[in-house]
Each structure stands twice: as structure tokens, then as C-alpha cells.
Amino acid sequence: MASSATVLNKNVVMEKAWLSMVNLIERSLDSGSMKRVDKTPFDIIHEEDLLSVRHYPALTRESVTIANQTIPVLNKVHRVPLVLIPPLAVGAFIFDLYPQRSLVSYYLAQGFDVYLINWGNPDRDHSHLSFETYLLDWMPKAIQHIREYSGKQELSLFGYCMGGLFSLIYTAVHEDAAIRNIVTVASPIDMHQMGAAGKVFTMTYQPAHRLARAFNFKLINVNPKYLHISGKLGTIGFWLTNPIGNFTSFWDFILHLWDRDYLISHDSMGHWFNNMVDYPGATMKSIVVHMWIENQLAQGKMTVGEKEANLKQIHASLLSFAGNDDKIVSLKSSRKIMDVITAEDKEFRVVPGGHAGVFAGRKAVDYVWGASAEWLARRSN
């Protein structure tokens, strides 16, 4: 006669098999059924071309659940509004990935007045969009509308990857003294310290200049349509940085087909990695020439059109995070920020996670979200 434990185990297996079949059928009929991206309500306070600026109203709930933690919603609102700056290569939804991993909801619960600059989804018809477009036109307009809407001049900027660089470069090129705080996450500064890629950039520097002089040719003058990078290529590049991790993720998916909460997490994260955004060709020219080859940021500056952003002019308080297992942005590349930013109030923290995990992984909630919220709270009143 079968023991009660054996019967129980069989029942659990049968239940998981049934739930797995139900979940598979649902995903087959509706591929987006498990995605919960971009669900926090927001208002559009400015919109032009691809650019839009969001404001997230205060939460009306008593608490939110983030990474299985119950976060009480504070009644107070910090005086300095917080502006979230996404990178160009991914959608703005990564700040509101799914309810259990929503940075937007987390910061709202911590009493911040939250805004987000959304760069939109360019295609090949937008290959003309340049650093000048983003940093000399769109971002100043977005910041101005946020100031008008909030009634506050002082702002805090929070940028992930390229969003962190945009936060720094904008503040420097406009000498915006009312930017009170800047938080960067996984933002590269010294491109020649980016592992194997960095060595290629270093070796390319001198030959590129010699070729330019010999043939009277400058890469910066190339038609931007030839340098436009499709989002699909970005997706392939991202997956290639960690093939073993990708296989492990797929295997975990198979083992957790029965777990709806796991599938929501998996499919929402997958929406990020499988839907990378195009990099406009004109922007890629500046990245390749000024960032990668000339490595300007490591020297504390950045050419933006006819202007120059001098990072030594940034006096905002700075908190910078880097992932200890980031395969894309090395610690040496990120840590360079401490040399080029001369502000007295600055801090660099190495935290657990890869390039995505350091921003949106389970541990990021404590090591990055919680730490940055506490840091900002002390500097936002």
C-alpha cells in the first residue's frame, strides 16, 4: 500500500503537470498574456516626435509588493522630484518592468515625485537623431516641462547605463546647477577598460587617426543611415554576452512552467531582452568616434555638436553603482567616474549582479533601489 507521502508527491506532480499544460496553452493562444510591463498609471505632460515625458501620480494604496517584500507607502513627499532616464537601447518600460519589479512603484512608495523621460522607439527613418537631438534639444525641453509641472527647480536624475551618461552629459553641457543629485547604474566611463572590446577601442585609436589624415576621411562625416543599429542586432549582441546564463534561464523556464508568478517574471524580463530598441545612426557616430575611439569621457569631457560637456563642472551629489558580474560594463570602466567627477559628495558602490541584474534583479531591490532611495531621501528635503 502506497504511503501518504508517496500519494502526496504524486498529487503534487500531477498538479504541476496540469498547471504547466494550462500555462502553455494560455501562452500559445496569447503570447503576451504573461507580460506585465508598464502597468503603473502615468500622465503624459509633454510629447513631441518620439519624445514623451511621464509623471507618475502618487500611489493610493497603503503598500506595494516588490520582490516579495511588502513596502509601506509613505505619506510624505520629498521636496526634490526624481527624474528617471532610460538608455537608448531599451524601452522605458524597464523602469516599470512588472509589479514585483517596478522601480517606479518602489520610488513612489518611498515618497518621491517621479517623472520619466521616454526616448521612444526609433527606426531607420530616425537615423538622423543625434547626440545633439537628445542632449541639446529633447532633454532640456523635458527637464523644463518637469520643472514647470512640478513647480520645483531642483531635480534628481537617475540613469541606467547610457541613461546615466545622459544624466552626466546633460548636467555638464548645460551647466545646470539645479540638478541636485545624480544616480548612475552600470554606466561606462572609460571605454578602453571594457574588457576585450576596450582593447579593440584602444588599438583602433591611433590607426583611425592615421587613416583619417592619409585619406582626408572622418568617420563622423559618414552618412548616419550606414551606422544605424537595429534592435534585433542589439538583442543578439546582448544574448551573446552570456550564452551559458541564457541556457540556464531557458532550463529554469522549463522547470517552472507550472508557476504562473515565475512565468510573469520570465516573460516580462524576456520582453526587455527580446525587444531591444534601434540605435540611430547619427548617435552611433558620436558613440563610436567620441566615446569608443577617442574615449573622451575618460578624460572628463564629451563633444556634443559644437559644445563640450566638461564633467568637472558637475557639482551635484553623485551615487554610482556597478555590478560585480557585469559582462558588458566592467568595474574599471565604471569606477573611472570617481576620477572625472570632482564634486565633493560622491560615492561609488560595487553591488551584486550582471548588466541587467544590477538594475532589475532580485538583489537590486536591496542593494540599488533601497540604497539609492535612502541616499536620495537624505538629499531631497
Could you describe the 3D structure shown?
By secondary structure, this protein is α/β, with parallel strands linked by helices. The chain has helices at 4-29, 103-109, 131-150, 162-173, 195-215, 231-240, 243-255, 260-274, 281-293, 331-335, 337-340, 357-360, 364-377, and strands spanning 43-48, 51-56, 63-66, 69-72, 82-85, 114-118, 155-160, 179-185, 301-304, 307-310, 317-323, 346-351. An eight-stranded mixed β-sheet has the order 1-2-6-5-7-8-11-12, with helices on both faces. A hairpin with a 2-residue loop joins strand 3 and strand 4 (69-72). The longest helix is centred in the N-terminal third of the chain and has 26 residues, at 4-29.
List the main descriptive attributes of the protein structure presented here:
alpha/beta, 8-stranded mixed β-sheet, 12 strands, globular
Q: What structural category characterises the helix and strand content?
A: alpha/beta
Number of strands: 12
Strand order of the largest sheet: 1-2-6-5-7-8-11-12
Order of helices and strands: HEEEEEHEHEHEHHHHHEEEHHEHH
Main sheet specs: 8 strands, mixed
* Beta-strand content estimate: 15-25%
